[in-house]
Design goal:
about 375 residues, alpha/beta, Aspartate Aminotransferase, domain 2, Aspartate Aminotransferase, domain 1, 2 domains, eight-stranded mixed beta sheet
Length: about 375
Amino acid sequence: MRIPLNDLKRHHAPLANELAAAVNRVLSSGWYILGPEVEAFEREFARYCGVEHAVGVGNGTDALELALRAVGVGPASEVATVANAGMYGTAAILRAGATPLYVDVDRQSMTMSPSSLAAAISPATAAVIVTHLYGQIADMEQLLAIAAQANLPVIEDCAQAHGAARAGRKAGSWGTLGCFSFYPTKNLGAAGDGGAVVTADANLAAKVRALRQYGWTEKYRSTVARGSNSRLDEMQAAVLRTLLPHLDGWNARRREIAQLYNRALAGSGVILPDAGDDYVAHLYVIRSPHRERIRTALAAAGIGTDVHYPVPDHLQESLRGVPFRQTALPVTEACAREVLTLPCFPEMTDEEVGEVAGEAGFSLPTP
């Protein structure tokens, strides 16, 4: 593709020397798992998110699962979530032994609808996973108020929202716990897999630390049930420490790109994302009933696209025979038929943005 959906080579090239130094630092230390690099990154990332504690884990799905377990979710529990985020929350819920409860999303933001959550909660509901989709923080004020009325912990899925803020509060600092993925394409991505759980609650942080390593509360002493093996390694922590100081600048450029797209595509008839100050444009996603027509035209022009996500969780083949509960999901299902992701990464030039928007606009039928 002349203009790829993402370009990690371009992204990392300016920091090649710093990244090499970080990797060599770890190799020279001879310490590769849960050492000083992880401890330092946990402190730095917790401070960045505006919370007291961060716990490095193996990946973002593990982060969600361990967070669920830390708040007591298990068999016979029901966890409210959305069905339009690629199965990540669903996988964590099922691995924790619980049952997914799917609620619908807001038509504009495509994040969890507060009214749908309020209508869906039952006595079996034990927790809520709120996904900050595409870099847009969900309506946390209303969602937290609804969860509080039912005395439910709220777990933020921040895998697409590193550095996003709402009312001055960063993603991960709103709920009971916040969960991050550091998959390489994330706004803050490692050179492999990695994840973290953040929280203001010292007791929950201690529980997650135990759960990530066999339930140990001291070496070789397991006192927390259902422990796992999910540890952030030193190499990834060193890479993340190198990249973290650049995150805000990258997010600002992503937001600029989204705003350029919005101006170029205004009046085209496609539904555009809000590109305000709380949006970090992890993915720039438009909606159109002419999705396949736009995608075909862009591919012919050498421009990469993707669909995030084409099949809602409750319609996935892997869930056949798996217990779950759903409310009516008309918005979720409609969005899945229309969403299209356009290239958006910090190193894109204004000219590339203009070319993508122009090809997308030209492909649409005349009103």
